[in-house]
Amino acid sequence: MNSATRNPVRDMTAGKPMGLILGFSLPLLMGNLFQQFYTLIDTMIVGRFLGKYALAGVGSTGSINFLIIGFCMGICSGFSIPVAQRFGAGDHVSLRRFVANSLYLGGAVAAILTVTVCLLCDNILQVMNTPSDVKNYAYSYIMVIFIGIPVTIFYNLLAGIIRALGDSKHPVIFLVVSSFINIGLDLVFILIFRMGVVGAALATVISQGISALCCLVFIRRSMPILRFMEKELSPDVHYMKTLLAMGLPMGLQYSITAVGAVVLQTAVNGLGSDSVAAITSAQRVSMFFCCPFDALGVTMSTWGGQHVGAKKLDRIGEGMRDCIILGAVYSVAAFAILFFFGDVLSSLFLGNGEPAIIAASHRFLIINSLFYIPLALVNIVRFLIQGIGFPTFAILAGVCEMIARMAVAILVVPAAGFTGACFANPFAWIAADMFLIPAYRYEMKRLHRFMKDS
Questions:
Q1: In terms of pTM, does the model score above 0.70?
Q2: Domain range spanning residue 46?
Q3: What are 48-94's pLDDT values in tens digits?
Q4: CB-based burial of residue 403 (10 Å sphere; 0-12 exposed, 13-18 middle, 19+ buried)?
Q5: How far apart are CA 254 and CA 160, in angstroms?
Q6: I want to staple 295 with a disulfide (CB 3.0 to 4.6 A). Which of 28, 226, 233, 441 is the partner?
């Protein structure tokens, strides 16, 4: 085993930004694509073999899934920011103490969330106006996902730590393995054991658990920087406060954004099962095409964290500029593909026997992809602001998205129906950008003054 394998960390504070960003984001993109790939396979198998009602049932849980699981992912991403900053500063002792305390906090969050949402699951679906003909499917699916919350937190926390140290490649390898395991379990649980939507959810939880275990083994064997002294493992209130100051705003940002999505989903549920199925299939395709934006965002979080720790503020803006160029070029290409082939992609979930649902799904994809450049800006600027240490702005950006989606749900959907719902995401992205861009400029000026005076 060579030294690169034993210590696969990467310092992003030296070298050309474009090359570093591409080198870090491409493995992330592959990981996101594989993660979405097995989500797509889940949906395709459910739609093809269990029918449109099962598909609509799974789809009707999308926003509440995002609300809860998004909070888990956000808080874990926030916990990784102090790790990236301490790595950039070369303070490995504090780095390890942050890692240890993040594991303690992750366990506590997992226990509280799992118990709470499982007890309230049925009430949540009732409040969301879940159609009666799909409610049983929805409950069975989301309950298993909720039970798997500890696995979700475990994986995202460990993968975030690995990425904070500059290694975006190995989490991808683990996701690739778990993707194929997920597909195999889907087929076994649904086609052989006849477990229905429970089988699809269980396959997702098990495969993510395997990814988490792979991350743990990799850290123990190949990252000597995370070999702890006994005193570094002790819980520390100071470190926990710092972690929560970063993690809670990022988790709440996801959740606040999702509140708007929940209100919108409630409005869409009122349009009937066909509309729910159309948006479900469209969102699955859209999530696949949005993977590059997620990869660029996570890259900017690590980029910002390491550069603030190294006190190299001038390179932060250079990296953001190159990242925006990449996002804009991709946005144009994605719109072209979805404009011409979105109906074909939507038909993968329902076959050719539901032409009206496929047409509605295609309409959703065209309208949303037309606004992918604003979405690219949301991910790049928001994650960069979080990485440089100002996560509170993530909450405020989430509030902007929430208000925009709620406005569409309350004012537009009742009047314009399904087409109105298609504009909810674009309105939310533009609203967030209108806040984030001035916020970034303000915080960078303040950070420059702070560094100059210190």
A1: yes
A2: 16-453
A3: 788 878 888 887 787 788 788 889 988 998 999 999 989 988 999 99
A4: middle
A5: 16
A6: 28
